[in-house]
Each structure stands twice: as C-alpha cells, then as structure tokens.
C-alpha cells in the first residue's frame, strides 16, 4: 500500500470513521440529488446556509442604551484566519450611523500647510493598500480578570476579528496637506453620535496606518465604519476610529474622554497606565472550548488563534494538563504581521479530565502570561488589555467548561 | 515642511481634493452625528450598507432552466484580493441543493484498502489547512473570443473569485483508506441533481488538493458547495466539485460527460484538447473599466487582478496606448501562490483617447497572450480557457468602453 503523505496521521490517530462495505450496499441517494435545486441568484447577495443559523454575533448582556455596547464574533464556529464580514464584532457608543457616502467628508486640518476636505471619491482615487490585520477591543476578555467566568469563548474572546483591509495610507493623505514639523500627534474623530476621539502619536503609526474603505474585498459594513475608518494595525480597537470624519494634526495628545476617563488601565497603586496602544501577544483555543461536548475518545485537532499587536507570532505552545507541560503547536502557513494566526495541535483524549491551554510567543520574544502573572503585575482593576492564558476544562463526561 | 513618505505622490499627481479654509467656515455637522444610530445586532448576521445595493452578482443572460447557468462577481466594485462570500460567483447545472449536513456523507472507494464513509463531523476532526486560492470557471471571458463583446468586466471576467479556503487535505483522507498502487486517477462526484463528475490525475493534485468546508472563515455557502467541496488549486473551476459526495480511486480517467462533451477545447484542425487543467496566467483591469465614466482629468490608480493556475504572479505590465508601450505595475504585497494578486499603476489622464490593457507574467515565465495570438494558436471554437489581454477604451468624453 503506497504511503501517500509524510506524517503518518492515519496510523497514529486511533481515529476511525464509519466503515461501509462499498460492495455490499449501494450508497444512499439523498432527496437533494433527485430534484433540481434553488435557482441562481437566490439571492443575488448570498447568505449562509439555514443549517448555520446559529453562527451569529451575540452580546454578553443587554445594552444600557440600544446603541451602546458590543456584540461578539462566534470564534468557535470559524475557521482559518479571516472573519467573514457579517460576523465582524461590534463596539459602539451611540449605535450605527447611516452615512450617505456622497455627503460624507474627511477633513484633515490643524498643523498643516493646506487643510483639505476629501470626498469618498477622492479617497478612492489614491493608490491603495490591502493588508490582513486583526482588530481587537482593548476590553476583550475582561470577564476573566477575577478568575474563570464560566462563559463560552464567543463571550470571553469575541471582541476580535481579522479582515483584509483596503484603503489609502494615512501618510499619503498627510503628504497632500503637508504636515508641520511641530505636529507630533493626530486627533482622529468619528461621525457617529458619540463622535469618538483618540489622540495617536504620529511617528509610531505613520508607516502603517490606513484610512480604510473596504473589508474582505467589499466596502466597509455600516457597523464596522462605513464609509471610512482608521486602521492602526496592532493598536487597541478604539483607536481604529469608525465613521472617520476628521483628523487634526496637533503638538500633543488632546486628552479626550476616551483616553482619560476610559481606556486607561488602573493599577494596584492607584496610578493608571495611559496610551497603552499595542495589543499584547495573546492566544485562545476555540475548539474544543466551553460549551462543547466531546462524544468520543480518540483524536482531536485542538485549534485556535494567536495574534500580537507588535508583529508576527513566532510560536504557540499548547498544554492539555493545565500548564504543567507544553508542546509547540503547528501554525497554518507563514505567520502574518499583526494578523490572526491559526494554530493546531494533535491530541488524543482518553476520557480523563484535561485542562487545555495555549500560550503565544511573538517575534519580540514576549510570552503570553498566566492570569496570575498578569494580576501580580497590574492588580485586577486595569480592566483593559487582559491577555492571560485561557483554560478550558474537559470533564470525564466530555463536557468542556470555562473553569 | 517635513516630507513624510517616500515616493512623492502628492507633488507629482496633479491631483487636487476640495480645499476648504478650516478657519473660515465650520465643518458641517451631518444629521447622523446628531442622533443615535441603529442598535447593535441589527442584524446579528451583518449585511452591506444600503448604499452598496448595486454590488451584487449578476447573470449575463437568463438561464435556460432556473438552476442551469452562472452568476458573476462584480469585480469592478471589489478591492484587495479577497472576494466576500456573498459575491462569490455561481456556476450550476441543476440549481443549488439544500443539503442537511447531518445526513450528508462523503464516500471514498474504488482501488483502496478500506472504503470509508465520512460524516461532516468526521471531516471536521481532522487537522485542517487554510489557503487563499482563486477559483475560475474555464468558460470565463468566453465572450471575447470573436473580439470585444462590449460587455462590462462583471460579465466578461466575473466567473472569478478568491477566498481563504479551509478543509482537510485530500492526501490525509486517502491515507485513511489506503490507496492501491494501481490507482492513478480519482473520480470526484457532486450531490446536486446534475451529479457533476470529473476525473483528476492523482499525482498532479495530491500535494495541494483539499476537501473544503469553509470559505473566508465560515462554513461554505450553499451555492458554493455546502457542506463540502473539492478545491484543486489552479485547476479549472469545474474540477472543484461542489457538494462533494464521492471520490473513487481508479486506474484511468472515467471519460465522463464533463470531460468529453464538455470542457474540452475544440481546435482549428478538428481535434480537441482534453484534460486542460491549469488556468493560464491572466489579468484584467477592473478600474476603470467598461461602463465607467471619468469625470475629471488628472491622476487615476489603474487597478486590477492578476492570477495564474501554475503558481505566483511574477509581474504585471500595464499599457495605456493599446499595447504599444508597457510599464510594470505595482503588486500589492507578496504575490501568493494561485491566488488573486492586486496590481495598480499610476496614470495621468489628459483627456485624450486611451486604450488600457494589462498583461500578466507568472513564475514559470508564461506571458499572457493577446487575443490575436490566442486565436492563431487555437482558433475561435475552443470556448474555454480564454485568457487574452483585455482592452478598455477611454474616449475623450471620459466614457470607458469594451472596444
């Protein structure tokens, strides 16, 4: 028998699919093979199968006001690295504005030679750039600061998505207006009812920030910033201002609400970290995860995501004994800069209790910390930037719990 | 004034956005900034903006029967490399079957040690692989064999899409059943009413063929093969059997309808090319393209796609004078193996008639031919595998035509 591929998965797995003697019984011909199916263009803009109707965004709690809160990506039901557009997470403060792209303007002003108003058509005429980047809310996984919340991965880690973003480089637009040497920061503002603003240090973002108008090949979704948003690869989600309307070149940070009252990290000693921009290296196993039930013993491909706001993932380690022993996982393809990287690890479940964890290491050498190490460094009140190792406990029954 | 980025686009472009003196007149505050917007989860599975309602799939002609025909991707309205799932092209022979994934089975039989039935859950448990690949119908652009059809790019080139596909390697599944050394080909069959079948040479596909269950991160769309399909990177679309139900290991091609009556290329001398698997290197400018109207003179970023079924795109050349002179275009990022590569070229339109063309060169050195060269080699009746250079004519009025 010819061995067809390297890596003798079949012989080592203990995995057995259903066997059926092909000679003894004809293959069932299902009803859908016996009748014509649905016509073309039904509908013209396609939708998922009705059998996938549970794969949707969900909120952890009811919003205080209808537009204020978040909805999470169903990470456990996704594959590869890309998040399909209909499932990209939401985080809003005043709901989703319905913006007429013909009326929308982007103004760039402040410490510039020539302030400019750009229409969307203007922006579409510039040379474009497309890159795959993750987007993560700095509040993601905040549920786990005080220990396992019991929640499933959609609600613990679902403020996380990854798209191919297309837009014009911020540096290209700043060339148009001419930036004064005294300008060290920008203020970016959104056009929603909350008019979110963040100050950003120019030197740290200029080489890669984009004014984006497309995600995964099509124009931005309304809830993700249509018609334009800022993308600052690797930085906290809130800096990636949606419904971008204004960029002001300034000397120093403007100290807006969103970088003083909010999005600062309160430490044990009463001081707060401010302008914590980069999302630290992080990973999470999405399959199996809390809420799943393993029904058979044998082989499973433990699967999840790893990512870092500082660059590429160098390595992901996986443990099945709660962090006592670690083994490197496989990374799918070449790890991409500041994008979600899919990892997988082989596991044979023999029915004992297991505690599944993953640990990311990025190209700077930074290692994802345990929750205990994170709390020791920052206390439990910093709210944002929780990137501790996540544990999923597999019971002897096969039930998987966030515990 | 500090120059912020290399490549003095701003000074050389002749491009002028609307100027507004920021000090003299306050920025307009639009109504959507003054009111709360739509709530979260409206809807839970997101949809495009209503302002993008023209960005849909379209058919070139009415289908002979409701399920038999194709619908094309709106290439001129897309960005980057990825095709969003709702716009991936369709090509069906008996409509879209509604397949219950819990009932669906994949059988692998024939010259094997142990024939197997796999459930979808079985397939999801194997190690997975995710790769970005283009998919192209071999009949794509067949409208142009006899000269410019006058049709827009959606209808000339729209049987073309590109997704991140996730699935299990075909070789992994063949390891499970054990393939006899006498098996040189596979027969793949679909579960739709047409039960499409194609024979494929095992040695040529084994290193990269996938049994796929996800596109761009979520489960396959019904019209793209839910719950599973074959992906044979770089090969004609019809070999990427949708709604995959059966793989049979055989000694020689089975000579099915889809590789004899159809999908063969009739040459001038009455002979036909058969088993022409790889899609040849090809490119097309999508912006500007037929149906567009340029309203101002000045700078435009000519933009389009290049791809090759034999590997990576090495270079794309662009001409604005109908192929008399050529200049290399910029490629976005590193060209990926057998995926759509976005290219752009700077162009200053001074109002004269222009004839815009692109020409792809792949890593094998193959150069995309002119229509004349293609016809000289194959005549006009080979129907499939048309990859000639496409011309878009810009009139002095700014109207762009397929002429």
From TrEMBL, chains A, B:
Positions of the Oxidoreductase molybdopterin-binding domain: 93-254
Source superkingdom: Bacteria
Entry keyword set: Metal-binding, Molybdenum, Oxidoreductase, Plasmid
Cross-referenced InterPro entries: Ig_E-set, MoCF_OxRdtse_dimer, Mopterin_OxRdtase_euk, OxRdtase_Mopterin-bd_dom, OxRdtase_Mopterin-bd_sf, Sulfite_DH_SoxC
A GO molecular-function descriptor: molybdopterin cofactor binding
Keyword Metal-binding: yes
GO biological process: sulfur compound metabolic process
Entry-linked Gene3D superfamilies: 2.60.40.650, Oxidoreductase, molybdopterin-binding domain (3.90.420.10)
Annotated Moybdenum cofactor oxidoreductase dimerisation domain residues: 274-387
SUPFAM superfamilies assigned: E set domains, Oxidoreductase molybdopterin-binding domain
Cofactor entry: Mo-molybdopterin
PANTHER family recorded: SULFITE OXIDASE, MITOCHONDRIAL, SULFITE REDUCTASE
Listed name of the protein: Oxidoreductase molybdopterin binding protein
Organism of origin: Caballeronia insecticola
């Amino acid at each position: 028998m010819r061995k067809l591929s390297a890596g003798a998965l079949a012989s080592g797995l203990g995995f057995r699919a259903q066997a059926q003697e092909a000679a003894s019984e004809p293959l069932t011909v299902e009803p859908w093979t016996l009748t014509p199916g649905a016509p073309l263009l039904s509908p013209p803009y396609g939708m998922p199968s009705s059998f996938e109707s549970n794969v949707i965004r969900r909120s952890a709690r009811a919003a205080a006001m209808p537009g204020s809160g978040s909805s999470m990506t169903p990470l456990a039901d996704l594959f590869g690295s890309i998040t399909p557009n209909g499932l990209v997470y939401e985080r809003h403060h005043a709901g989703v504005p319905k913006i007429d792209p013909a009326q929308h303007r982007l103004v760039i002003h402040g410490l510039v030679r020539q302030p400019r108003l750009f229409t969307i058509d203007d922006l579409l005429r510039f040379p474009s750039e497309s890159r795959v980047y993750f987007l993560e809310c700095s509040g993601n996984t905040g549920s786990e600061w005080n220990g396992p919340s019991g929640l499933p991965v959609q609600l613990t880690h679902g403020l996380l998505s990854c798209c191919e973003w297309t837009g014009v480089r911020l540096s290209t637009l700043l060339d148009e207006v001419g930036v004064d040497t005294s300008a060290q920061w920008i203020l970016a503002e959104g056009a929603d009812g909350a008019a979110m603003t963040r100050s950003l240090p120019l030197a740290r973002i200029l080489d890669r920030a984009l004014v984006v108008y497309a995600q995964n090949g099509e124009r931005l979704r309304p809830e993700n910033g249509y018609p334009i948003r800022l993308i600052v690869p690797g930085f906290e989600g809130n800096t990636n201002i949606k419904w971008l309307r204004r960029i002001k070149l300034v000397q120093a940070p403007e100290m807006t609400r969103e970088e003083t009252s909010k999005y600062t990290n309160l430490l044990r000693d009463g001081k707060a970290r401010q302008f914590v921009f980069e999302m630290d290296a992080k990973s999470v196993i999405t399959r199996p995860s809390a809420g799943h039930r393993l029904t058979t013993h044998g082989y499973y491909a433990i699967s999840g995501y790893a990512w870092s706001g500082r660059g590429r993932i160098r390595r992901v380690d996986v443990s099945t004994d709660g962090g006592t022993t670690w083994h490197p996982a496989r990374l799918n393809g070449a790890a991409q800069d500041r994008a979600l990287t899919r990892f997988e690890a082989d596991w044979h479940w023999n029915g004992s209790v297991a505690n599944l964890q993953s640990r990311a290491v990025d190209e700077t050498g930074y290692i994802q910390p345990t929750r205990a190490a994170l709390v020791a460094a920052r206390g439990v009140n910093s709210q944002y930037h929780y990137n501790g190792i996540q544990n999923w406990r597999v019971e002897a029954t096969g039930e998987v719990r966030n515990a």
